[in-house]
Amino acid sequence: MSHRVLRRLRRLALQAFLLVLGVIILNFVLVQLLPGDAAEVFAGEAGIATQETMAMLRERFGVDQPVLVQLLIYLGGLVRLDLGFSVRYNAPVAEVIFSRLQMTLLLNFAALVLAVLIGLLFGIVMANLRGRWPDRALSALALTLYSTPGFWIGLMLIVLFSVQLGWLPSDGYRTIGASLHGWDYAWDLGRHLILPAFASATFFIAIVARLTRTAMIEIRQQDFVRTAVAKGLPAWRVTLRHVLRNALIPLTTMVGMQVGALLGGAVVIETIFAWPGLGRLAYDAILGREYVVLLGILLISSLLVIAANVLTDLLQAWLDPRIKD
């Protein structure tokens, strides 16, 4: 590994550490501003909401301490890789989160792949047929997808493909009561994944399509592309090797920046489709005032966003060697 790459990795690691520390402190302070705590919900559900019981529960949960003390205790736990303990789930927060993390990663990865593939296809067609009816039709479709809320699209997908046509399941990630293994399990999981993944991807399909179209049209005006055309290279080769590769540079930046938006949108999509991921867990944690679980989710989400941006920087350096710092 070259000295330049190592220097870049060290710089990115330092930036990531400082950013994570800032995110942890900011999230902790913001969560402290939320009303109520787990003691109120726990006591209310158990019907024991007396002053003595509330004081005992707050002491047990550690929420009776000053905010600064709670922050120091929380940071000390993070140093030991301890995210806390969930009273509602009667399990460590890390265990609760990682049991849901894989489903969120699967959903977001599928949505991202759909957005990039479909958006690239739309963008290439729009750029190659600029000004013609396919360009205008796909531009109108992209604008519609961009301006339509994802939750509404998700509900309409359920009505059409689950209720009316009965082609795809509307909720969960597997058929209840079915004992499936191997390819049968993968097929069943894929059928449950299609609707939430597409609902999550629609907004980003529009962004990828418009960005690809704009970048390809701009790059086609560059001298090196005109030279390649003048040399008699086939149109498909010019598009793939010269135009599209350079158009991927701004696209990778956009994809890296939108990972956070995907994770944020997962709260709504996972709730609509009853998908057992971090978004649904965050929603339940807010309702149950399980702020220690919410802090863990925010921390893991922040780490995922930072990792995605680091990978984006490295990918851009590979696509364009001129990018050094």
TrEMBL record:
Bilayer topology annotation: Multi-pass membrane protein
Predominant cellular place of this UniProt entry's protein: membrane
GO biological process annotation, one example: transmembrane transport
Gene3D superfamilies noted in UniProt: MetI-like
Bilayer-spanning residue ranges: 12-34, 105-129, 141-163, 193-212, 247-273, 293-315
Keyword Transmembrane helix annotated: yes
Name of the protein described by the UniProt record: Peptide/nickel transport system permease protein
